[in-house]
Amino acid sequence: MTATSIAKPPVMAAAVQVAALLDQAEEARLRGDYRAGSELARQAAKLAGVCGDAAGEAAALRSMANQLIRLGEQEAAVTACREAVAVLETLRDDAGICEVLTVQAMPLNGLGMHEEALEALARGREIAQRLGDRDLLYWVHNRTGVVHGSMGNREQSTDYLMRALSMAEGMDVEARFCILNNLGDNAVYQVPRQRANGDADGARETLRNALGYVDEALRLAREARHPFRESICLDNYGMLRALDYDFEAADRMIEDSRAIAAIHGYRSLESAALQHQAHVRLMRGECAKAIEGLLEALDRAVEAGETPMAMEIHRELSEAYEQVGNFAAALGHYKAYHLLERTAHNDVAAARARMAVHQFELDNARLEAELARVRSAELEVATLSWQRQATEDSLTGLPNRRFAELRLPEMVASGGPLCVAIADVDLFKGVNDRFGHFVGDEVLRQIAAVLRDNVRDLDLVARLGGEEFLIGLDGVDFEDARARCELLRAQVAAYPWEGLQPGLSVTISLGLAIVRAEEDLPAAMILADRHLYEAKRAGRNQVGS
Question: What's the predicted TM-score (pTM) here?
Answer without folding.
Answer: 0.58
